[in-house]
């Protein structure tokens, strides 16, 4: 039986779908203001492996991964380069697709973009306002009332009392509480914007996923996934928005890929240890990189280094050497049942790829 570690409950438990034989899975995608880095690759490959395995087992998986194509970072980068937001995002989305194709990552079933879902996002905000979970401020922004939602903090373990004590109150702040977060941002002169009942503006980061997951899957998701930095505040805010608006559980299982470290340090541009996927692929075969990314359990951190990639290359070469002269098409249909069962058992144990990779070894 498939067992999944749930970030919400902090336990591993049997997976029970909302609908027999079907899985609705939403994974937070990339904000396309720059080339994808090796951390993005970790998330892409991890959920690609999961989806492939589940479909191999016979599950009907509806895999949705969004694209954030309007955002403060995007607007800033476009201005720095003297190009339009649309031009920048078009190039970065094309580059992202090139990178995932190089890593043998299959495209999700749906890839909704923020700019293509403005009506859905605005309608979602209107529903929150109607239920008194959100309010329009005097400056044209719309905010979510965090302290009205009783379950706030259940995913990340953050307590509103602690957040409130550490929050800064700015002079002239238009928010009712320093904890409230923005759903709709009023546009400044010259900024990319869309019309709304509250004036021209654009969505806040968190609201987009609540609206797009609703449209692509429904009110409750079987699985919601993402990177290691998303439980707070992004996913916490998604829960608050969605459960307030829809009146039901937002996601039954929360899954988060582990971080990528570089020589035991956090990957960061400021530390000059930031590597894009295409930079890595200049020096290493895509199969080696994919093997490296699956050689550690998806939830654990993985250390990116020259030695780690060389070890992955050596391990992959041993696999190929063992298969030399063998017709793999025939072997694939005649694997001894005990070895296939070892593989299935490993993957059903919260997608334990290191154990699965060793399952066929004698």
From TrEMBL:
CDD domains per the UniProt record, alphabetical: CysRS_core
Entries under Pfam families matching the protein: DALR_2, tRNA-synt_1e
Signal peptide: none
Catalytic activity from the UniProt record: tRNA(Cys) + L-cysteine + ATP = L-cysteinyl-tRNA(Cys) + AMP + diphosphate
Gene from which the chain derives: cysS_1
Subunit text: Monomer.
The protein's required cofactors: Zn(2+)
E.C. code: 6.1.1.16
Domain tRNA synthetases class I catalytic, first and last residues per copy: 15-313
GO biological process, one term: cysteinyl-tRNA aminoacylation
Domain Cysteinyl-tRNA synthetase class Ia DALR: 342-358
Predominant cellular place of this UniProt entry's protein: cytoplasm
Binding-site residues for Zn(2+), renumbered to this chain: 28, 209, 234, 238
Compartment(s): Cytoplasm
Placement of sequence motif 'HIGH' region: 30-40
UniProt keywords, alphabetically: Aminoacyl-tRNA synthetase, ATP-binding, Cytoplasm, Ligase, Metal-binding, Nucleotide-binding, Protein biosynthesis, Zinc
Name of protein: Cysteine--tRNA ligase
Keyword ATP-binding attached: yes
Motif ('KMSKS' region): 266-270
Gene Ontology MF terms: ATP binding; cysteine-tRNA ligase activity; zinc ion binding
Similarity comment: Belongs to the class-I aminoacyl-tRNA synthetase family.
InterPro entries: Cys-tRNA-ligase, Cys-tRNA-synt_Ia_DALR, Cys-tRNA/MSH_ligase, Rossmann-like_a/b/a_fold, tRNA-synt_1_cat_dom, tRNAsynth_Ia_anticodon-bd
Positions that bind ATP: 269
Gene Ontology cellular-component annotations: cytosol
Domain of life: Bacteria
Cofactor details (free text): Binds 1 zinc ion per subunit.
């Amino acid at each position: 039986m498939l067992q999944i570690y749930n970030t919400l409950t902090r336990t591993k438990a049997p997976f029970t779908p909302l609908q027999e034989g079907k899985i609705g899975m939403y994974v937070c995608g990339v904000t396309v203001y720059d080339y994808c880095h090796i951390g993005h690759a970790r998330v892409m490959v991890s959920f690609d492996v999961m989806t492939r395995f589940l479909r191999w087992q016979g599950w009907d998986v509806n895999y949705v991964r969004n694209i954030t194509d309007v955002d403060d970072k995007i607007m800033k980068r476009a201005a720095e380069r003297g190009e339009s937001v649309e031009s920048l995002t078009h190039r970065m989305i094309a580059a992202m697709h090139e990178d995932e194709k190089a890593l043998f990552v299959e495209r999700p079933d749906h890839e909704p973009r923020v700019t293509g879902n403005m009506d859905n996002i605005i309608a979602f905000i209107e529903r929150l306002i109607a239920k008194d979970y959100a309010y329009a401020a005097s400056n044209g922004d719309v905010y979510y009332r965090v302290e009205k939602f009783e379950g706030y903090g259940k995913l990340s373990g953050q307590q509103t009392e602690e957040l409130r004590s550490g929050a800064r109150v700015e002079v002239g702040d238009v928010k009712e509480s320093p904890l409230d977060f923005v759903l709709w941002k009023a546009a400044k002169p010259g900024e990319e914007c869309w019309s709304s009942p509250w004036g021209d503006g654009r969505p806040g980061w968190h609201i987009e996923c609540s609206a797009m997951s609703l449209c692509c899957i429904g009110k409750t998701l079987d699985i919601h996934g993402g990177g290691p930095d998303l439980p707070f505040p992004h996913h916490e805010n998604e829960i608050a928005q969605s459960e307030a608006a829809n009146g039901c559980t937002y996601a039954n299982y929360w899954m988060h890929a582990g971080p990528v470290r570089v020589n035991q340090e956090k990957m960061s541009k400021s530390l000059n240890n930031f590597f894009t996927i295409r930079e890595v692929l200049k020096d290493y075969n895509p199969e080696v990189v994919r093997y490296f990314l699956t050689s550690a359990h998806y939830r654990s951190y993985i250390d990116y280094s020259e030695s780690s990639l060389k070890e992955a290359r050596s391990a992959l070469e041993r696999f190929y050497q063992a298969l030399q002269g063998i017709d793999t098409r025939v072997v694939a249909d005649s694997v001894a049942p005990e070895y296939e069962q070892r593989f299935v058992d490993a993957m059903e144990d919260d997608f334990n790829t290191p154990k699965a990779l060793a399952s066929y070894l004698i």
